[in-house]
Amino acid sequence: MTETTASTAWLVTGAGGILGRDVLAELTAAPGAEVTGRTRGELDITDPEAVRAAVAAHHVVVNCAAWTDVDGAEADEAAATAVNGTGVRHLAHACAETGAVLLHVSTDYVLPGDAGRPYAEDAPTGPLNAYGRGKLLGERMVAELLPRTGYTVRTAWLYGTHGHNFVATMLELASRRATVDVVADQYGQPTWSAVLARQLAVLGRAALAGRAPAGVYHGTAAGRTTWYGLAREVYRLSGLDPERLRPVGSAAFPRPAVRPAYGVLGHAGWARAGVSCQPSWRDQLAAALETPRFAEPAAAARAAALTLVAG
């Protein structure tokens, strides 16, 4: 999935996050790329004038900026929506003024989570929580203001080599606990941020070349599993005993925000753009676990295993 990026100017918002840092790395590695990254501290997307100034002179904007505290959104929906909804409107409006392509990263939480098969890109939405409602507003702003140059890419269960994420947490807990309870009644698609970053880069190039229709795309790994299934694979691939994990229901971990029970997404839309779907979640996880970010805590967990299990 490589194409020339010469003379193309990219802007990455939310460049300090799990995905944003990988998008920056992916884009800057390409010969001739002109890439500007803006962290939350450097660009507040709720400020329309700051957004307009940042977007100017860029051909593609990749919006990785987001309020990601799902439970926090329940306590302050207005603040979350200001970022996930109104902030996206500012970006879309600025892109409409300059003709820039906008790749906006969204979430499976805009869907009701009650399906029995993967959600198509055009499936009816119906968020269950404040976070999802704000993200859905952002999607609508992209579709309304950028009908030909706006792209929403929904992802889910994202983990990466930067920041806090489920895979890192499981390895950290393996060093401290003999057993770990993990939710086994929520289904999704664990997705490595580095793989999604590559897919976003290819989509942006295809969009500039006029090969990718605007609209919604699903940027998640192939296949499906539960949090418990993911944890077992993390343990197995890391040389830890998966039997140390115990499956529990969602009720064992009450949270302010309701989580969808089924967030599995279909990937038919990528064929329209001539862009490859992502590999399976197991293949992605195996590759990610070879990086120092995960290999080092896995080694520490194996070293602690004998003491923990014996105790």
Automatic annotation (TrEMBL):
It comes from the Bacteria. The keyword Oxidoreductase applies. Residues 11-291 form the RmlD-like substrate binding domain. One of its GO terms (biological process) is dTDP-rhamnose biosynthetic process. Its EC number is 1.1.1.133. The keyword GTP-binding does not apply. One of its GO terms (cellular component) is cytosol. Keywords: NADP, Oxidoreductase. CDD domains: dTDP_HR_like_SDR_e. It is an enzyme of class 1 (oxidoreductase). InterPro entries: dTDP_dehydrorham_reduct, NAD(P)-bd_dom_sf, RmlD-like-bd. Pathway: Carbohydrate biosynthesis; dTDP-L-rhamnose biosynthesis. Pfam families: RmlD_sub_bind. GO terms for molecular function: dTDP-4-dehydrorhamnose reductase activity. Catalyzes the reduction of dTDP-6-deoxy-L-lyxo-4-hexulose to yield dTDP-L-rhamnose. Belongs to the dTDP-4-dehydrorhamnose reductase family. This is dTDP-4-dehydrorhamnose reductase. The lineage of its organism: Bacteria, Bacillati, Actinomycetota, Actinomycetes, Kitasatosporales.
